[in-house]
Design brief:
about 220 residues; mainly alpha; about 0% strand; Thiaminase-2/PQQC; Aminopyrimidine aminohydrolase; Heme Oxygenase, Chain A; Thiamine_Salvage_TenA
């Protein structure tokens, strides 16, 4: 049987291609993305990473061995500390204060994605949680590298591009793929299929998150 990750990527290749070519990422690569759209994205991404960090911490709590506990605990720290530093630079550029950030509600897409990850983290087995967490790592790395390859040197979003196209982030992605593949080894077919469903739903939510940022979507009522 092939590795879980290879199967999951192949099953969701069309969704990844939709993400790669969607207007938000196309305009981000070109450096023409409207600043208000990127502002919406950065605010929501900062909210998202808090929930993502919590889900990673719960993965550490559920991990079957000490090495995986350390891996996911460090990943949770990175989500909160390292990537927040990236957001902090954009927040300063945009004049977004901590108070303004705290007062910004989660968008429908962000709220859905965070709620899905936390519900999975609390209610589902370790293997399914890893299936749900993997797309955020992997898709960001692939999108980052794709954009880096075609972005102009004077792109105003260069800091974002360089972070997700960088070797440090790619190393974290590789480790996450390995952990997920290890978790999938030898599991019952029904559990493996549930892992696939979690991966697919998180991949769909990645698309929804970027689409919502492009539309600067808020709550309609």
């Amino acid at each position: 049987m092939s590795a879980f990750s290879a199967e999951a990527w192949a099953r969701n290749a069309a969704v990844y291609e939709a993400i790669r070519t969607m207007p938000f990422n196309a305009e981000l690569a070109a450096g023409t993305l409207r600043r208000s759209r990127f502002r919406h994205y950065i605010l929501q991404d900062a909210h998202y990473l808090i929930g993502f960090g919590r889900a990673l911490a719960l993965a550490a709590a559920k991990a079957p061995d000490p090495d995986r506990i350390v891996q996911f605990a460090r990943a949770a720290e990175t989500a909160i500390v390292v990537e927040r530093a990236l957001h902090g630079g954009f927040f300063r550029d945009e004049g977004i204060t901590p108070e303004a950030f705290a007062a910004t509600p989660l968008s429908p897409a962000c709220d859905h994605y965070v709620s899905y990850l936390l519900a999975t983290a609390y209610a589902e087995p370790y293997e399914i949680l890893l299936g749900a967490l993997l797309p955020c790592f992997w898709i960001y790395a692939e999108v980052g590298r794709d954009i880096h390859a075609r972005a102009a040197a004077d792109n105003p979003y260069r800091a974002w591009i360089d972070t997700y196209a960088g070797e440090d982030f790619f190393a974290a992605v590789t480790a996450m793929i390995a952990a997920t593949d290890a978790a999938a080894e030898g599991v019952a077919p029904a559990l493996r299929e549930r892992m696939h469903r979690a991966f697919a739903r998180a991949t769909q939510l990645e698309w929804l998150f970027w689409d919502g940022a492009y539309r600067e979507a808020g709550w309609p009522v």
